[in-house]
Design goal:
Strand content: under 5%
Shape: globular
Helix content: over 70%
Radius of gyration: 19 Å
Order of helices and strands: HHHHHHHHHH
Number of strands: 0
Distance between the termini: 46 Å
Number of helices: 10
Structural class: mainly alpha
Largest sheet: none
Length: 211
């Protein structure tokens, strides 16, 4: 954001509205490349298409009695990390107060991290070494692995879904006929195929908690 000349307030506003690391990075990159506003918005819509799946999953599992406006607020503030924490545990309904509290902790933390990052970039030149910057890119992957492994060990459908989606996404990125597909679409396609396959192999039986 500093390279694009954004102020702290401009960077914070973008972070508050997009709430997606890949989307923010793509927006800044395209902005620096001189892309139009339409191209930036369209790219973000494709990159973040997975949130349609995530938010529909969370909405379906929210306990009854949650108003529509509250569901919309939960959907807007749900990031990958909050979705993983909320859905990776035991099946059943998710209390909407729990989901609200989860997002109420994650959303401000995301914005605080954005502000700190911009300020360090503007005034803390040399404060973070290149080695540390490079290692930060691995921290997010480590967090998701830490969330997925325990659930995959307990539930075979989770393990199947993770491995299948990873395999399909790898094939899409490697095959000459499909490797030009946008990363956002690639993730969306592999996730849908893996999830549908798992649903067919392990049909869900409705319980009292699901009603």
């Amino acid at each position: 954001m500093n390279k694009a000349g954004f102020s702290v307030w401009e960077g914070l506003l973008m972070s508050m509205l997009i709430l997606a690391g890949a989307g923010e990075f793509a927006a800044v990159t395209l902005y620096l490349a001189g892309a139009s506003n339409f191209e930036i918005v369209l790219t973000n819509a494709i990159l973040n298409a997975r949130y349609f799946l995530q938010c529909s999953t969370v909405s379906r599992r929210l306990e009854t009695g949650c108003p529509a406006w509250w569901r919309a607020l939960i959907g807007f503030t749900t990031a990958d990390e909050a979705f993983s924490i909320a859905t990776i545990g035991e099946p059943g309904k998710i209390p909407y107060c729990y989901m609200t509290g989860l997002n109420a902790a994650a959303y401000p933390g995301w914005q605080l991290g954005t502000v700190i990052g911009i300020l360090l970039g503007k005034h803390g030149v040399g404060f973070i070494s290149p080695e540390l910057q490079a290692s930060m890119s691995l921290a997010l992957y480590g967090m998701f692995i830490g969330l997925l492994v325990p659930a995959a060990k307990k539930a075979r459908p989770v393990l199947f879904t993770v491995l299948t989606s990873a395999g399909i996404n790898t094939l899409i990125r490697m095959l000459p006929a499909t490797k030009t597909i946008n990363m956002g679409w690639s993730i969306l396609i592999s996730t849908i195929i893996a999830a549908c396959s798992a649903s067919a192999l392990w049909p869900h039986t409705e319980t009292e908690d699901d009603r």
